[in-house]
């Protein structure tokens, strides 16, 4: 079982007086859904970029399956807040992008792309242009495109951040469905407290100045959804409200109320 | 301002469909009445009328301003019988050939140069000063040097036009390349794209709208340079035709030549806009 591991990672950007993140350790196993939350400037995205291989840590080690992470790779596909899709391609061609890079024949990659589009519930949108899609549909295409790389880990940088509240709620269950179906480990950054609780198997709370871990929560609401419990029932559970209060306290700990 | 004035925001209009929309963002008013196009047509007509009247009343001598009718007659005559040993079609063909040969050369050199400027520090270090040096020099200034180096043949004429087109093509390409979003590149890299694949599959298509804008500007620059390029030892071409006519004070041919160039440039602009819409329909909609 490969693990994505950050070991006492410090991120220090050139020209900055203080590090963005100091000595943070994380471990994401396959089947885990780890969510990073915290106030602005706590270094959530920096950590995700280290895992992606887009940012090199100043100190500490980032490894996947024991091998050091030195560059981005399709074993860790990233989905960004602004979908970062390619508008000159159709939805299907976007999903098939990584297969095209690998030289997969056109008919096979189109078939695979259609399967993935079906998985993200965009069955009939294959021929659509990117600008014809709504924000939620675009993120679905982005997720399908990432899954086409057959990654071991999905790195999600506020993937639902730009969506309206209703779309966002629907996309949360989609994410859980994909996580279950694709059997990947997920490392996700979010600002949403409820979103973190709905999705995560583990929530890592970070605080700024420089970014460090203040608390880690093991949660089970996402697994309960995966086991078949309806999302509304989970959210109505008093345990959910209690966990939300705890998490909120942890995020704003040390800050005047 | 009193707090109470906030309550006086306009309420939803009767025709407003969306109950969730913010009440003070009124539906965009339908365009009524005037649009720009008929006004433009009217301006042109007024100009033509003023020209006709002043020519008719002989306010200025026909040597300075021939009448529209005279210019039109000249167009027909030159199209049929030619002027200085070539018909109008031959003049147009010669000029079009030069401009397009130059355009292709400018694309062939300018796009790779722009790409180099946009993606590598070395490329920028090498080419940026060269382009900045070349850009402000008027074609008439380097024309003699080109003639000394490359003679008075056709290649010199194409080269003069191509040099004028190079900077807009290269700089627009570079701007387009530099404008590619970081996330888009990072996404491609995380999907397994190599550096070369990122350039080919992400950077170039992303920069395409900007490159096409560069081509449009380059074509404009090309037509402005045409007359200079045809100054030396040309026997055909619209620029040459205008200059020969000017030497013999055949003003109606001069005016006719100017109008022909304007018409062609306008038509090309239209064609390029069509190409843009077909090739980069996503531009401005991302």
UniProtKB/TrEMBL annotation, chain A:
Pfam families from the UniProt entry: ABC_tran
UniProt keywords, alphabetically: ATP-binding, Cell inner membrane, Cell membrane, Membrane, Nucleotide-binding, Translocase, Transport
Gene Ontology terms, MF aspect: ATP binding; ATP hydrolysis activity
Protein's UniProt keywords contain Signal: no
SMART domains: AAA
Domain of life, per lineage: Bacteria
InterPro entries per UniProt: AAA+_ATPase (IPR003593), ABC_transporter-like_ATP-bd (IPR003439), ABC_transporter-like_CS (IPR017871), ABC_transporter_ATP-bind (IPR050166), P-loop_NTPase (IPR027417)
The ABC transporter domain, residue ranges: 4-233
CDD domains on file: ABC_NrtD_SsuB_transporters (cd03293)
PANTHER family reported in the protein's UniProt record: TAURINE IMPORT ATP-BINDING PROTEIN TAUB (PTHR42788:SF18), TAURINE IMPORT ATP-BINDING PROTEIN-RELATED (PTHR42788)
Family recorded in the similarity comment: Belongs to the ABC transporter superfamily.
Protein name: ATP-binding cassette domain-containing protein
Annotated source species: Mesorhizobium tamadayense
Automatic annotation (TrEMBL), chain B:
GO CC annotation: plasma membrane
Location within or outside the cell: Cell membrane
Domain ABC transmembrane type-1: 92-272
GO biological process, one term: alkanesulfonate transmembrane transport
SUPFAM superfamilies membership: MetI-like
Keywords on record: Cell membrane, Membrane, Transmembrane, Transmembrane helix, Transport
Record's bilayer topology term: Multi-pass membrane protein
Disordered: annotated segments: 1-32
Sequence intervals crossing the membrane: 34-53, 96-118, 130-152, 158-181, 202-226, 246-268
Compositional bias ranges of the Basic and acidic residues kind: 10-19
Chain's role: Probably part of an ABC transporter complex. Probably responsible for the translocation of the substrate across the membrane.
Family: Belongs to the binding-protein-dependent transport system permease family.
Protein name: ABC transporter permease subunit
Organism per entry: Mesorhizobium tamadayense
């Amino acid at each position: 079982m490969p693990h994505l591991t950050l070991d006492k990672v410090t991120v220090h950007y050139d020209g900055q007086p203080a590090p963005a993140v100091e000595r943070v350790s994380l471990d994401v196993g396959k089947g885990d859904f780890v969510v990073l939350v915290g106030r602005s400037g706590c270094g959530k995205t920096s950590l995700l970029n280290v895992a992606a291989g887009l940012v090199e840590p100043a100190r500490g080690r980032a490894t996947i399956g024991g091998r050091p992470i030195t560059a981005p790779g399709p074993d860790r596909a990233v989905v960004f807040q602004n979908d970062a899709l390619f508008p000159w391609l159709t939805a299907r061609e976007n999903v098939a992008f990584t297969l095209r890079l690998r030289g997969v024949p056109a008919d096979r990659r189109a078939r695979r792309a259609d399967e993935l589009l079906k998985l993200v519930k965009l069955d009939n949108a294959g021929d659509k242009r990117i600008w014809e899609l709504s924000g939620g549909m675009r993120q679905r295409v982005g997720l399908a495109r990432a899954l086409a790389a057959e990654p071991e880990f999905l790195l999600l940088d506020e993937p639902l951040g730009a969506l309206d509240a209703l779309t966002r709620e629907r996309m949360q269950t989609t994410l859980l469905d994909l996580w279950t179906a694709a059997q990947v480990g997920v490392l996700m950054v979010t600002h949403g407290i409820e979103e973190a609780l709905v999705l995560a198997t583990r929530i890592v709370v970070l605080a700024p100045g420089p970014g460090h871990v203040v608390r880690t929560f093991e949660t089970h609401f996402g697994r309960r959804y995966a086991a078949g419990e309806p999302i509304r029932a989970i959210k109505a559970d008093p345990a959910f409200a209690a966990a939300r209060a705890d998490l909120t306290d942890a995020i704003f700990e040390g800050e005047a109320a | 301002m009193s707090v109470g004035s906030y309550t006086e925001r306009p309420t939803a209009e009767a025709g407003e469909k969306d109950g969730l929309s913010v009440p003070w963002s009124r539906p965009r008013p339908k365009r009524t009445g005037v649009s720009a196009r008929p006004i433009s047509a009217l301006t042109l007509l007024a100009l033509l009328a003023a020209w006709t009247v002043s020519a008719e009343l002989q306010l200025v001598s026909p040597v300075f301003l021939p009448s529209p009718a005279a210019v039109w007659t000249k167009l027909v005559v030159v199209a049929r019988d030619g002027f200085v040993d070539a018909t109008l079609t031959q003049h147009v063909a010669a000029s079009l050939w030069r401009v397009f040969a130059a355009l292709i050369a400018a694309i062939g050199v300018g796009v790779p140069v722009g790409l180099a400027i946009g993606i590598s520090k070395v490329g920028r270090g090498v080419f940026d000063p060269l382009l900045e040096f070349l850009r402000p020099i008027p074609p008439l200034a380097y024309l003699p040097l080109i003639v000394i180096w490359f003679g008075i043949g056709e290649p010199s004429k194409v080269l003069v036009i191509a040099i004028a087109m190079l900077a807009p093509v290269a700089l627009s390409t570079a701007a387009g390349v530099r404008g590619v979003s970081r996330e888009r590149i990072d996404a491609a890299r995380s999907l397994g794209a190599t550096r070369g694949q990122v350039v080919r599959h992400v950077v170039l298509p992303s920069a395409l709208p900007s490159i096409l804008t560069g081509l449009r500007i380059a074509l404009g620059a090309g037509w402005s340079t045409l007359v200079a390029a045809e100054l030396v030892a040309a026997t055909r071409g619209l620029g040459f035709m205008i200059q020969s006519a000017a030497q013999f004070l055949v003003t109606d041919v001069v005016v006719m030549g100017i109008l022909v160039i304007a018409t062609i440039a306008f038509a090309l602009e239209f064609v390029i806009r069509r190409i843009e819409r077909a090739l980069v329909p996503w531009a401005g909609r991302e």
